[in-house]
Design brief:
- The chain is mainly alpha-helical.
- The protein has 20 helices and 8 strands.
- The strands form 4 sheets. It has a two-stranded antiparallel sheet. The protein has a two-stranded antiparallel ribbon with strand order 3-4.
- α4 packs across α6, α8 packs across α12 and α17 packs across α18.
- The longest helix is centred in the last third of the chain and has 29 residues.
- The relative contact order is 0.09.
């Protein structure tokens, strides 16, 4: 599904603040109220609310309907405009805070953590107040009613989230560290609260709770993999300069290092590119000083690979490598026969997608392509999976073949991609244990085992009574 763009816009509803006595209790005049709304809007952009809550195909802003694929099923983002019939128009600020921080809506229903309330729990009271002002008075009310989320049993029992929250959500508001600078504390707040980088870049356990003692060291996102962003020099960003990290956050591209695709491209497009330079610098400062997590030796993922020099030789071979044939006919026109890329398409060597310790992002890029819009410019690479034109689609075997050619020549030659891996990426990635245990077949097998055990127990009990008589 193509990502949507959140555009900065004017505040046409600022004058409507005069109609809200609740709001005026916190704002002495219209300029103060408009300033509070503008602050809330900036915070909403930093929190990337629009990426999920603004529907595709240019629907009303924040009116819901975007489908978030998860290992447990599809989760539909809700309407969070001030509509009283379809949105959050009748929410008090207390209701709003409870939904944002605790994942419980006004009706008392538990939200699913696709809405990153485990990170938003850290948002301060002042910022909650500004966000509330923006959503109530800076967003146009829309009566659009997106379909309700309908996960399979047992995940459709929302009350089960109460137990999950007890295990994995702490509901603690951010408190600045006394031994850290103001800049580092601001970066901590952005990375782990508003921008919720931790929810993607931290590994998760079998119950999908964050493994926080390995924070920001990389985590699976279904078809994609959010890489290690700790200062480790081999698997993280320890070899990146401050300027390179800042450029990546603002644009999603650093030549000779990386380019954003998938969920990270959406984060850059909808959120990070709009943050001011001070906030970007704060995020960089915070990421620089966190503990490095990763391997202790070996080549860094962005240093692997070199230009290919076997183009002419392969053309003379009677039965050339299948991956090279696909690369030559499908990829070389943009990425060049030697893999060096051009002004619009990145080099395939010295590239974190091809040099990573796992091939997920390389496969997902081939299947789904790349799209992000930065500073009004579209950066696109077509996908060759099920959404491609019929003549452009590649099979799982073909994607495995071309992936292996790229890895062997331009990236991590230790990896080998199988058609089954490609199939797994197409289907949304490896399912965690909690999702596998909930499959109907598992439930059926478990029920059968329980029934057999009960029959055996009853039979043994009856035999015991018979012998006793």
């Amino acid at each position: 599904m193509k990502a949507r763009k959140v555009r900065p816009r004017c505040l046409p509803f600022a004058l409507s603040l005069l109609l809200s006595t609740t709001f005026l209790a916190h704002a002495e005049n219209a300029p103060d109220a408009a300033s509070l709304i503008a602050k809330g809007k900036y915070l909403a952009i930093a929190a990337d609310c629009g990426a999920c809550h603004t529907p595709p195909n240019h629907g009303d802003e924040m009116s819901g309907g975007y489908i978030i694929s998860s290992p447990l099923g599809n989760i539909v983002a809700s309407n969070i405009t001030p509509s009283k019939t379809a949105g959050i128009g009748d929410y008090t600020e207390e209701d709003f805070a409870k939904a944002v921080r605790e994942g419980i809506n006004k009706q008392g229903q538990h939200l699913y953590p696709a809405m990153p309330y485990t990170s938003y729990a850290k948002i301060t009271d002042a910022d909650i107040h500004a966000l509330y002002a923006y959503f109530m008075h800076g967003v146009k009310a829309s009566d659009h009613r997106p379909p309700a989320t309908d996960l399979p049993f047992p995940f459709n029992i929302r009350l089960s989230m109460a137990l999950w929250n007890t295990l994995f959500a702490d509901n603690k508001v951010f408190i600045p560290a006394q031994d850290k600078s103001e800049q580092v504390n601001r970066g901590d707040y952005l990375v782990n609260a508003l921008a919720h980088c931790d929810t993607c870049h931290t590994p998760r356990n079998s119950l999908m709770g964050q493994v926080n003692d390995q924070a920001l060291s990389g985590g699976s996102l279904g078809s994609w993999f959010a890489p290690n962003i700790t200062p480790d020099k081999h698997s993280g960003i320890g070899n990146w300069s401050d300027e390179e990290i800042a450029q990546y956050l603002k644009t999603g591209h650093v030549a000779g290092k990386a380019q954003a695709a998938g969920p990270m491209a959406e984060a850059v497009e909808h959120s990070l590119q709009y943050l001011n330079d001070d906030d970007i610098a704060a995020m960089v400062a915070y990421l620089r000083q966190i503990p490095a997590v990763g391997q202790s030796s070996g080549a860094s993922r962005e240093s692997l690979g070199k230009p290919a020099t076997d183009e002419a030789a392969l053309r003379a071979v009677s039965h050339p490598d299948e991956g090279w044939k696909i690369y030559g006919s499908t990829c070389a026109n943009c990425h060049q026969p030697d893999g060096s890329g051009n002004k619009l398409y990145p080099s395939l060597f010295h590239n974190t997608a091809t040099g990573a310790p796992q091939a997920d992002n390389l496969i997902a890029t081939i299947v789904y392509g790349v799209h992000r819009q930065v500073n009004g410019q579209d950066i696109d690479m077509p996908g060759f999976g099920p959404d491609a034109l019929f003549t452009d689609r590649l099979t799982d075997q073909q994607i495995a073949d071309v992936s292996n050619y790229v890895l062997k020549n331009f990236g991590n030659a230790q990896l080998t991609v199988t058609p089954q891996q490609v199939k797994t990426v197409r289907e949304g990635g490896e399912r965690p244990l909690i999702a596998r245990l909930a499959q109907p077949a598992i439930w059926g097998s478990a029920a059968a085992v329980i029934i057999i055990l009960l029959v055996l127990l009853i039979s043994r009990s009856r035999r015991g009574k018979k012998h006793g008589a």
